[in-house]
Amino acid sequence: MTTLSELGEFGFIARVTADLPTGGEVLAGIGDDCAVVRNGGTVLLFSCDASIEDVHFARTHCAPYDVGWKAMASAFSDIAAMGGVARYALASLACPPDTPIELLDELSKGAYECVAACGAVLLGGDTTRSPGPIMLDVNVIGEAPDGRYLLRSGAKPGDILAHTGSLGRSAAGLAALQRGDAPSDFTRAHLHPVPRLREGQWLAAGDAVHAMMDISDGLAQDAGHLAEASGASVDIDSNAVDTAGIEELAVALGAEPLDWALAGGEDYELLVAVEAGAFAQVQRDFEREFGLPLTAVGRFAAGQPAVTVDGATRGGAGFDHFR
User: Fold this and answer.
1) Which of 147, 178, 203 is the C-terminal boundary of a domain?
2) What's the whole-number average pLDDT of the chain?
3) What residues does 299 pair with on adjacent strands?
4) What is the pLDDT of residue 322?
5) How many alpha carbons fall within 13 Å on the CB side of residue 311?
6) Which of 149, 136, 132, 281 is nearest to 210 (CA)?
7) How far apart are CA 37 and CA 195, in angstroms?
8) Does 277 lie in the same domain as 232?
Protein backbone atom coordinates (compact mmCIF):
# COMPACT_ATOMS: atom_id res chain seq x y z
CA MET A 1 0.00 0.00 0.00
CA THR A 2 1.37 3.40 -0.99
CA THR A 3 1.68 5.89 1.84
CA LEU A 4 1.26 9.66 1.72
CA SER A 5 4.95 10.14 2.48
CA GLU A 6 5.85 8.04 -0.59
CA LEU A 7 3.43 9.89 -2.86
CA GLY A 8 4.33 13.35 -1.57
CA GLU A 9 2.27 16.52 -1.31
CA PHE A 10 2.12 17.30 -5.01
CA GLY A 11 1.59 13.71 -6.09
CA PHE A 12 -1.37 13.52 -3.70
CA ILE A 13 -2.85 16.76 -5.06
CA ALA A 14 -2.56 15.48 -8.63
CA ARG A 15 -4.16 12.16 -7.65
CA VAL A 16 -7.26 13.56 -5.94
CA THR A 17 -7.89 16.41 -8.38
CA ALA A 18 -7.37 14.66 -11.72
CA ASP A 19 -11.08 14.29 -12.53
CA LEU A 20 -12.46 17.52 -11.13
CA PRO A 21 -14.55 19.41 -13.70
CA THR A 22 -13.50 22.77 -15.14
CA GLY A 23 -14.90 25.04 -17.79
CA GLY A 24 -17.82 27.40 -17.99
CA GLU A 25 -17.39 30.12 -15.40
CA VAL A 26 -14.26 28.42 -14.01
CA LEU A 27 -11.42 29.97 -16.00
CA ALA A 28 -8.66 28.25 -13.99
CA GLY A 29 -9.12 25.57 -11.38
CA ILE A 30 -6.67 23.54 -9.32
CA GLY A 31 -3.00 23.84 -10.23
CA ASP A 32 -2.39 27.57 -9.87
CA ASP A 33 -1.99 29.94 -6.94
CA CYS A 34 -5.68 30.83 -7.13
CA ALA A 35 -8.81 29.51 -8.76
CA VAL A 36 -10.13 32.00 -11.31
CA VAL A 37 -13.89 32.38 -11.76
CA ARG A 38 -15.88 34.71 -13.99
CA ASN A 39 -18.87 36.22 -12.19
CA GLY A 40 -20.76 38.36 -14.65
CA GLY A 41 -18.39 41.11 -15.75
CA THR A 42 -15.95 40.47 -12.88
CA VAL A 43 -13.10 37.95 -12.68
CA LEU A 44 -12.66 36.70 -9.11
CA LEU A 45 -9.68 34.95 -7.52
CA PHE A 46 -10.07 32.40 -4.72
CA SER A 47 -7.44 30.78 -2.51
CA CYS A 48 -7.06 29.27 0.95
CA ASP A 49 -4.13 28.62 3.25
CA ALA A 50 -3.83 26.76 6.55
CA SER A 51 -1.40 27.56 9.39
CA ILE A 52 -0.92 24.84 12.01
CA GLU A 53 1.05 25.08 15.22
CA ASP A 54 4.32 23.11 15.17
CA VAL A 55 4.04 22.73 11.40
CA HIS A 56 3.93 26.33 10.17
CA PHE A 57 4.81 28.10 13.41
CA ALA A 58 6.10 27.41 16.89
CA ARG A 59 5.03 29.51 19.87
CA THR A 60 8.53 29.19 21.31
CA HIS A 61 9.76 31.80 18.84
CA CYS A 62 6.66 33.27 17.17
CA ALA A 63 4.59 35.88 18.98
CA PRO A 64 0.80 35.43 18.58
CA TYR A 65 0.60 38.70 16.63
CA ASP A 66 3.11 37.33 14.10
CA VAL A 67 1.14 34.09 13.76
CA GLY A 68 -2.02 35.99 12.83
CA TRP A 69 -0.22 38.34 10.46
CA LYS A 70 1.67 35.60 8.63
CA ALA A 71 -1.40 33.39 8.23
CA MET A 72 -3.15 36.19 6.38
CA ALA A 73 -0.05 37.32 4.47
CA SER A 74 0.66 33.86 3.07
CA ALA A 75 -2.91 33.60 1.78
CA PHE A 76 -2.98 37.07 0.22
CA SER A 77 0.37 36.32 -1.42
CA ASP A 78 -1.56 33.91 -3.66
CA ILE A 79 -3.70 36.84 -4.83
CA ALA A 80 -0.50 38.80 -5.52
CA ALA A 81 0.82 35.85 -7.53
CA MET A 82 -2.04 36.24 -10.02
CA GLY A 83 -1.71 40.03 -10.27
CA GLY A 84 -4.94 40.47 -8.32
CA VAL A 85 -6.42 43.04 -5.96
CA ALA A 86 -7.16 41.72 -2.45
CA ARG A 87 -10.83 42.12 -1.50
CA TYR A 88 -12.03 39.81 1.28
CA ALA A 89 -10.94 37.19 3.80
CA LEU A 90 -12.62 34.54 5.94
CA ALA A 91 -10.78 32.77 8.75
CA SER A 92 -11.51 29.65 10.80
CA LEU A 93 -9.80 29.11 14.14
CA ALA A 94 -9.40 25.78 15.93
CA CYS A 95 -7.80 25.72 19.39
CA PRO A 96 -7.96 23.93 22.76
CA PRO A 97 -10.42 25.34 25.35
CA ASP A 98 -7.57 26.26 27.72
CA THR A 99 -5.92 28.59 25.18
CA PRO A 100 -5.28 31.97 26.89
CA ILE A 101 -7.64 34.69 25.66
CA GLU A 102 -4.76 37.19 25.62
CA LEU A 103 -2.96 34.97 23.10
CA LEU A 104 -6.02 34.91 20.85
CA ASP A 105 -6.46 38.68 21.18
CA GLU A 106 -2.93 39.24 19.86
CA LEU A 107 -3.28 36.61 17.14
CA SER A 108 -6.51 38.27 15.98
CA LYS A 109 -4.89 41.70 16.03
CA GLY A 110 -2.10 40.49 13.75
CA ALA A 111 -4.62 38.96 11.35
CA TYR A 112 -6.83 42.08 11.31
CA GLU A 113 -3.92 44.44 10.70
CA CYS A 114 -2.56 42.33 7.83
CA VAL A 115 -5.99 42.27 6.17
CA ALA A 116 -6.21 46.05 6.49
CA ALA A 117 -2.67 46.53 5.17
CA CYS A 118 -3.62 44.49 2.10
CA GLY A 119 -6.63 46.75 1.49
CA ALA A 120 -9.10 43.95 2.14
CA VAL A 121 -11.96 43.28 4.57
CA LEU A 122 -12.34 40.36 6.99
CA LEU A 123 -15.92 39.12 6.59
CA GLY A 124 -16.08 36.42 9.28
CA GLY A 125 -15.25 32.76 9.69
CA ASP A 126 -15.69 29.93 12.17
CA THR A 127 -14.35 28.78 15.53
CA THR A 128 -14.13 25.24 16.85
CA ARG A 129 -12.49 23.24 19.61
CA SER A 130 -9.29 21.38 18.86
CA PRO A 131 -7.82 18.64 21.07
CA GLY A 132 -4.39 19.49 19.74
CA PRO A 133 -2.58 22.55 18.47
CA ILE A 134 -3.89 25.88 17.25
CA MET A 135 -4.88 26.05 13.60
CA LEU A 136 -5.89 28.97 11.39
CA ASP A 137 -7.52 28.31 8.03
CA VAL A 138 -7.71 31.42 5.86
CA ASN A 139 -9.79 31.88 2.72
CA VAL A 140 -9.20 34.93 0.54
CA ILE A 141 -11.02 36.46 -2.41
CA GLY A 142 -9.48 38.86 -4.87
CA GLU A 143 -10.34 40.49 -8.14
CA ALA A 144 -8.43 40.56 -11.43
CA PRO A 145 -8.16 44.22 -12.55
CA ASP A 146 -9.86 44.61 -15.94
CA GLY A 147 -10.16 40.82 -16.01
CA ARG A 148 -6.39 40.49 -16.46
CA TYR A 149 -4.41 37.89 -14.49
CA LEU A 150 -1.33 35.71 -14.86
CA LEU A 151 -1.14 31.92 -14.57
CA ARG A 152 1.83 29.63 -14.01
CA SER A 153 1.40 28.12 -17.46
CA GLY A 154 2.46 30.96 -19.76
CA ALA A 155 6.27 30.64 -19.74
CA LYS A 156 7.80 30.23 -23.20
CA PRO A 157 11.17 28.85 -24.35
CA GLY A 158 13.69 31.66 -24.22
CA ASP A 159 11.90 33.54 -21.43
CA ILE A 160 13.94 34.90 -18.55
CA LEU A 161 13.25 33.52 -15.07
CA ALA A 162 13.37 36.37 -12.57
CA HIS A 163 12.23 37.16 -9.05
CA THR A 164 11.37 40.27 -7.08
CA GLY A 165 13.26 41.27 -3.93
CA SER A 166 15.81 38.95 -2.34
CA LEU A 167 15.66 35.28 -1.43
CA GLY A 168 16.71 33.17 1.53
CA ARG A 169 15.93 35.83 4.11
CA SER A 170 12.99 33.97 5.61
CA ALA A 171 15.05 30.78 6.00
CA ALA A 172 17.83 32.86 7.54
CA GLY A 173 15.32 34.40 9.92
CA LEU A 174 13.98 31.02 10.98
CA ALA A 175 17.52 29.79 11.66
CA ALA A 176 18.20 32.92 13.70
CA LEU A 177 15.01 32.47 15.72
CA GLN A 178 15.83 28.83 16.42
CA ARG A 179 19.23 29.96 17.68
CA GLY A 180 17.58 32.51 19.97
CA ASP A 181 18.88 35.62 18.20
CA ALA A 182 17.44 39.06 18.89
CA PRO A 183 14.95 40.52 16.40
CA SER A 184 16.53 41.57 13.11
CA ASP A 185 15.68 42.19 9.48
CA PHE A 186 15.98 38.44 8.96
CA THR A 187 13.56 37.49 11.73
CA ARG A 188 11.11 40.12 10.47
CA ALA A 189 11.37 38.64 6.98
CA HIS A 190 10.30 35.28 8.40
CA LEU A 191 7.62 36.46 10.82
CA HIS A 192 6.18 39.47 9.01
CA PRO A 193 6.14 38.90 5.22
CA VAL A 194 4.39 41.49 3.08
CA PRO A 195 2.48 40.21 0.04
CA ARG A 196 3.70 41.81 -3.20
CA LEU A 197 0.21 42.89 -4.25
CA ARG A 198 1.03 46.17 -5.99
CA GLU A 199 4.07 44.62 -7.63
CA GLY A 200 1.99 41.70 -8.90
CA GLN A 201 -0.63 44.02 -10.38
CA TRP A 202 2.09 46.01 -12.15
CA LEU A 203 3.75 42.90 -13.58
CA ALA A 204 0.44 41.44 -14.76
CA ALA A 205 -0.55 44.67 -16.53
CA GLY A 206 2.11 44.38 -19.25
CA ASP A 207 2.43 41.93 -22.12
CA ALA A 208 6.08 41.03 -21.54
CA VAL A 209 5.45 38.98 -18.37
CA HIS A 210 4.10 35.59 -19.44
CA ALA A 211 3.75 33.67 -16.15
CA MET A 212 3.94 34.35 -12.42
CA MET A 213 3.64 32.70 -9.01
CA ASP A 214 4.82 33.44 -5.49
CA ILE A 215 7.85 31.81 -3.90
CA SER A 216 6.57 29.83 -0.93
CA ASP A 217 8.38 26.50 -1.33
CA GLY A 218 11.81 27.75 -2.46
CA LEU A 219 13.16 29.12 -5.73
CA ALA A 220 14.14 25.75 -7.22
CA GLN A 221 10.87 23.96 -6.48
CA ASP A 222 8.67 26.87 -7.51
CA ALA A 223 10.64 27.34 -10.74
CA GLY A 224 9.84 23.68 -11.33
CA HIS A 225 6.13 24.41 -10.86
CA LEU A 226 6.33 27.10 -13.56
CA ALA A 227 8.19 24.71 -15.85
CA GLU A 228 5.71 21.88 -15.28
CA ALA A 229 2.68 24.10 -15.87
CA SER A 230 4.24 25.64 -18.99
CA GLY A 231 5.53 22.42 -20.55
CA ALA A 232 9.10 23.73 -20.63
CA SER A 233 12.41 23.22 -18.87
CA VAL A 234 14.18 25.90 -16.84
CA ASP A 235 17.78 26.22 -15.72
CA ILE A 236 18.83 28.37 -12.76
CA ASP A 237 22.21 30.07 -12.76
CA SER A 238 23.46 29.74 -9.18
CA ASN A 239 25.92 32.60 -9.71
CA ALA A 240 23.01 34.94 -10.44
CA VAL A 241 21.22 34.15 -7.16
CA ASP A 242 22.02 37.03 -4.81
CA THR A 243 23.02 35.65 -1.40
CA ALA A 244 25.03 38.65 -0.24
CA GLY A 245 22.60 39.63 2.50
CA ILE A 246 22.51 36.22 4.15
CA GLU A 247 26.08 34.99 3.78
CA GLU A 248 27.41 36.17 7.14
CA LEU A 249 24.63 34.50 9.11
CA ALA A 250 24.90 31.32 7.04
CA VAL A 251 28.62 31.05 7.77
CA ALA A 252 27.97 31.61 11.48
CA LEU A 253 25.42 28.79 11.52
CA GLY A 254 27.36 26.42 9.28
CA ALA A 255 24.75 26.66 6.53
CA GLU A 256 24.97 27.21 2.79
CA PRO A 257 23.40 30.53 1.76
CA LEU A 258 22.54 29.14 -1.66
CA ASP A 259 20.51 26.38 0.01
CA TRP A 260 18.48 29.00 1.87
CA ALA A 261 17.78 30.84 -1.38
CA LEU A 262 16.97 27.76 -3.47
CA ALA A 263 15.07 25.67 -0.96
CA GLY A 264 14.34 27.77 2.13
CA GLY A 265 10.87 28.90 1.11
CA GLU A 266 8.43 31.38 2.65
CA ASP A 267 10.05 34.40 1.01
CA TYR A 268 6.73 35.31 -0.65
CA GLU A 269 8.50 37.15 -3.44
CA LEU A 270 7.16 36.88 -6.99
CA LEU A 271 8.68 34.54 -9.57
CA VAL A 272 8.11 35.53 -13.20
CA ALA A 273 8.77 34.45 -16.76
CA VAL A 274 9.60 37.51 -18.86
CA GLU A 275 10.14 37.84 -22.60
CA ALA A 276 13.91 37.96 -23.07
CA GLY A 277 13.98 40.93 -25.41
CA ALA A 278 11.84 43.01 -23.07
CA PHE A 279 13.46 42.03 -19.80
CA ALA A 280 15.95 44.88 -19.48
CA GLN A 281 13.19 47.48 -19.90
CA VAL A 282 10.82 45.65 -17.54
CA GLN A 283 13.61 45.42 -14.97
CA ARG A 284 14.44 49.14 -15.19
CA ASP A 285 10.80 50.21 -15.01
CA PHE A 286 10.02 47.84 -12.14
CA GLU A 287 12.99 48.95 -10.05
CA ARG A 288 12.18 52.61 -10.69
CA GLU A 289 8.52 52.07 -9.72
CA PHE A 290 9.09 50.08 -6.54
CA GLY A 291 12.69 50.62 -5.47
CA LEU A 292 12.96 46.84 -5.41
CA PRO A 293 15.24 44.59 -7.46
CA LEU A 294 13.96 42.33 -10.22
CA THR A 295 16.73 39.77 -10.65
CA ALA A 296 17.23 37.43 -13.62
CA VAL A 297 18.29 34.01 -12.33
CA GLY A 298 17.61 31.61 -15.19
CA ARG A 299 16.08 30.87 -18.56
CA PHE A 300 13.34 28.63 -19.93
CA ALA A 301 13.96 26.25 -22.83
CA ALA A 302 11.99 23.78 -24.91
CA GLY A 303 12.01 20.23 -23.62
CA GLN A 304 10.51 17.97 -21.00
CA PRO A 305 9.37 19.94 -17.93
CA ALA A 306 12.25 20.02 -15.47
CA VAL A 307 14.27 22.39 -13.33
CA THR A 308 18.05 22.27 -13.19
CA VAL A 309 20.68 24.36 -11.41
CA ASP A 310 23.78 25.09 -13.49
CA GLY A 311 22.62 22.40 -15.89
CA ALA A 312 22.33 19.65 -13.27
CA THR A 313 19.44 18.20 -11.31
CA ARG A 314 19.56 19.29 -7.69
CA GLY A 315 18.21 17.20 -4.81
CA GLY A 316 16.21 18.62 -1.94
CA ALA A 317 14.65 21.26 -4.16
CA GLY A 318 12.12 22.63 -1.69
CA PHE A 319 9.41 22.00 0.88
CA ASP A 320 6.98 19.10 0.71
CA HIS A 321 4.60 18.66 3.67
CA PHE A 322 4.60 14.88 3.56
CA ARG A 323 8.22 14.02 2.71
Assistant:
1) 147
2) 92
3) 160, 235
4) 40
5) 0
6) 149
7) 22
8) yes
